[in-house]
Sequence to fold (714 residues):
Amino acid sequence: MADLAQVHVDIELSIRRTYQRAQEIRPENTNRAYVKKQREFIEWCNKKEGFEDGCIVTPGKLHLFLVEEVIGRERRNKKRDNEQRKVVGKATIQGYTAAVVDLWSQQKQQKVNAHPNPRTDAVQLLLRNVQSEQEETRKRNFDDRGIGTLLDGYTTVSELNGIADYFWQKGRDHEVHLRNLVAFLLSHYALMRGESIRDMELPDLHSVLLDKEGYSQCYALILVMRQGKTNQFGRLEVAACLRNSEVSICPFGALGFYLFWRWHMQGEDFPSFARSSDWYNIKLLKSGTNLCKEVDYRVHKESIESAFAAIELKSKAKTHLGRGSGARMVELGGASEAQIRRLGRWNHQTMENCYLTSLPREAMRTLAGFSPSQGQFFLSRMAVTPPSQLTSKLFPQVEYWLSKLEVGDCEQSIAAGGFLHLLKLLRIVILQDSVFLRIRHPTHPVWKHGVFSDPSYISFAEQLSVAVANQVDPAELQLQRAMPIMTDRISSLHEDLTNKFNGIELRLSQQTEELRGLKSRLEDIMNGNAEMRLCARFDMNWPSSRQTSTLEQRVDVNTNAGSSRIETIDLPRTYRLSRGIITVTDLWREWTEGLGGSPSVKELERKWGTAWCEGNERRFFNRRKIVLEAIENRASKLLGGITEENLKLAAQWFEEKRQSQKKSLDWIVLAPLTRCRSYGRVPQPHAILYYSQRTTPGGLLITEATGVSPSSDG
Fold:
C-alpha cells in the first residue's frame, strides 16, 4: 500500500512540475501582460469581504471584479496636462478577463478550483455592453474616425521614400538611423510585428534564389521566427521580401549598408563562426555596444514617431504600423487575400505550417514594386556585376569562414552557411545600390570609406551608370524582337483570310446568279408567262410501239402554284408558246432565253425547224414572229447593228410604244391580219404592210420600225 501511495504522489508531483515549468518558459510578454493583472485580482479578493474561498476564481467573482475595478477606470498612462483623461477600453478589459481566466486554469491544474470556466455568457454580454457604450462615447467626444482606415498610416511609395530619406539624412549616430531604417523596411515588406523585428538574430537571416521570376536574378531575403505574439512554442515561421524596384526603399540595400556600417565604419568585430554559441545570440537590431541585447521598444517607437512627424504622417500605430500599412499596400497593388494572409502569417493551416515555404511570391512581387504576375522581375541596376576584386573588399572574412565550413574546420551549421552566402549577396547589392544612393544622399559619411574611392569601384560605377542610361526594358525589347515575327504571322493570317473570303464571295455570287435565274423562271410560271411541264417515262412491258413514246402532260399554272416542283428534262421535240405574255420584252425573252426553264423558241426553231410546232401553233407563232422581226429590223438600224444589247433596247422601245398607245400585245399582232382578210385579191404581205402603215396604230408602230414605204404596188 505504501508503494502505491508513493506512486500517486510521484505522479502528482510530476504533473505539477510540468505545469510549473510551463509557467516558467512562457513568453515574457505573456507574463508581463498577465502577472500584474492577476495580482490586482488577488488583492481585490483579499480586501473584499464575504469571499470565504479567498482568491479562488469563479464566474461571479470575475464579473464583479470587472464591474468594480476595471470598467470605467481611467487609463494609467501619463497624459499632457491639457489632455482629457480617458477610461480604459475594450482591449484592456479583455486583457483583464484573459489574465483572470489564466489564473483559473492554474488553480484548476493544481486541483484547488472545481468551478467552471469564468468566461460565462454574463461576462461576454458585459464586454459587448462595454463596446456599445464606448462607441456612443466616441461619437459624443467626436473621436477621430480616420483611425483604422487607409488614412491611418501610409499607402504610397512617395511616403515610403520620405521615411527612408529621413533616416538616411538624419545627422549624427548614423548606425542608429540605419538600424531604424532596417527595422522600418523589414516590418513593412515582411509584414512583421515590431516585437518580431526586435527579436531577430543573425542566424535567423538567409537568402534563396527564386527561379522564373523575370529577366534579372531574383533573390528573397528570408527571416526565420520561432517566437512571437502568436508563436509561443517555437513553431517555425518565415517572413520574406525581394529587392525593390526603387533603390531608395530597398530592404536588401538598407540591411547591407547597416551591416557594412557596423563592421566597416563602426569598428564592430566581424562574427566568429567557429562555434554556434559565438554568434547565435547576436541581435540584428542591437542596442548600443551590447551585441546580444535587442533595441528597446521605446527607442524603436520613438524613431518611428520622429520619422512620421518629419513627413507629417499621422498614425495611431507605430512599431506595428508596417504590418498594417504593408498589408493594405499589397491589397491596393492587386495581390489576393490568400497571398496577404500567407505573407503576414495570419491563420496558418497545418499544410502551410508543415510543408509550404510561406513565400507568397505574388504578394512579395507587389510590395517590391513589380507586377503580381510571374516573370516581370527586372532591375536595371543589376545590369553590371561588380568585379570579384572589388566585392572581396567588403566583408572580406566571408570566404575565410566559408572555406572553414567546407572543410569542417568549424562547427557545422546550416544557418552559418546561409548567413555567409547572404553576406556575399549583400556585397553585390551594396556596390550596385551605392551608385544611385550616392546621388540621392551625397553627404552621407558612408561614402568616405575607401572602397567607394577605389579605382575599380569608380570604373564599375561608370559602367553601371552608362548601362542603366542606355538600357532598354527587356519586356519592351522582347516585344520589339517579336514584332517582325508577329507581323509576318499576321500578314500570312490576313492573306489566308482574304483568300477564304474571296472564295466565299465568288461562291455567293454564283449562287446569287443561280437564285436569280430560278427566281425569274418561277416568276414566269407564277405570272402565267410559262407553263410547268411534267414529263414521265414508263419503262414497262408495253407494246414496242409505245416503248419509245413520251407521255406529255401540259398543266396551266396559276398564281397559286408556287409550290409546284420543276423537273429538268432534255430539249423537247414540241413546245407550246405561252399565252400569258402581255409585253414585248417578255415575248422577246421567250424567243431568246425561254421562260420558266423551257428552251428558247429561237433554239427550237434552229434545231427542229417547223417540226416543233404545227397547225394552229404554227400560225400563232408566225403572227408573233412579225413583232420579233420588227425588233431585229429596229436593232439593225441602231449604232453597232444587231447586238444583244441593241436587241434588248429595240424590244424595250416597242414595249414603251405599246404602253403609250395603251394597246395589248395581241392587238398589235392581230390588227393588220384582220384588215387584210377583207381584200382577198391583194397579196397578204403587201396588205399587211399597207394597212399596218395606213390604217392601224399597231401597223403604224411596226411601220415605224421597219421603214417600208406605203406606196408599194398591189
User: Anything to note?
Assistant: The two ends are 170 Å apart (CA to CA). The domain at 157-470 is CATH 1.10.443.20 (hpI Integrase; Chain A). Strands lie at 205-210, 218-225, 237-242, 286-287, 290-294, 532-536, 551-555.
